[in-house]
Write a structure and sequence with these properties.
By secondary structure, the chain is of the alpha/beta class. Helices cover 42% and strands 19% of the residues. Strands 1, 2, 3, 4, 5, 6, 7, 8 and 9 form a nine-stranded mixed beta sheet that branches. Helix 2 crosses helix 8. It is globular, with a radius of gyration of 21 Å. Bound molecules: D-malate (MLT). D-malate binds next to helix 2, helix 6 and helix 7.
Amino acid sequence: MSMKTVLFAAGLAVLAGPALAQSYPDRPITMVVPFAAGGPTDTVARLVAQSMSQTLGQQVVIENVGGAGGTLGAGRVAKADPDGYTLLLHHIGQATSATLYRKLPYKTLEDFKAVGLVTDVPMTIVTRKDFPAKDLKELIAYVKANKDKVTLGNAGVGSASHLCGMLIQEAIQTQLVTAVYKGTGPAMNDLVGGQIDLMCDQTTNTTGQIKGGAIKAYAVTTPKRLPSMPDLPTTAEAGLPNLQVGIWHGIYAPKGTPDAAIQKLSEALQKALADENVIKRFAELGTLPEPKERATPAAHQQHVASEIARWKSVIEAAGVFAD
Ligand code: MLT
């Protein structure tokens, strides 16, 4: 083959962008969780990663990168090689951070390729077990009367617990002292220990603690009660009808990741969402896998765009921004 032909072929290969080895994946894949281990996002990620590993034939290894409400971990993936070996599993914070942060280290819609939606997790309003309130009405009355003493825990601006806490404070027109953690895994330890008073956190992190009596629950942020906790009233029943929020979770790859890799990952995700073990564990934790048609890359990309628009007005009205 003449040198001219070799150079021409090499040029074509460069133009074609990063080709994907037929054997993809041929080594473990890293799935970044942008919050501390042991929290709700970590719980969802480990369940899905375990099932995807079986389909892909390679380990999907969780790497917890907490901080800045999830934006540090998201930034790590935005800058990763687009070779299909670094993924992000993040929740609604991927959309809300686009408004909350004036200086994000990435462009939310341009710097990621959606793989698919995973699940939409309810939130619960919970306190330390000896908090002096027997229902949400008493909780609100106590909080308003003691606002400088009640500490609200969350995982930083951009986290789901921050978003729900913001909605609660808006609804009761009361600003609370906030304790910030790298995830509601560590925050939950302090709630159980009584170091903080109040949190709004996902059922994937609170269900076990509520059922075990380690914390007290007042309401769930869904339109209907949960089969997993039928005695827990909805926010509407308990007196905060406008406080309804679900924490959707999705998987992303860095922009430039070959479509063939996205397709393989999407197929593995779809299988995980139909995995009996995943379905069973999700149900025990108060949530469900996304339906197939919503778990596609295109549906997920569209969902992120519409959620950025949806939450932009809510966040701007609340006037809550990160530096
Ligand atoms: C959140 O509030 O967004 C959660 O803390 C996320 C997590 O820790 O998994």
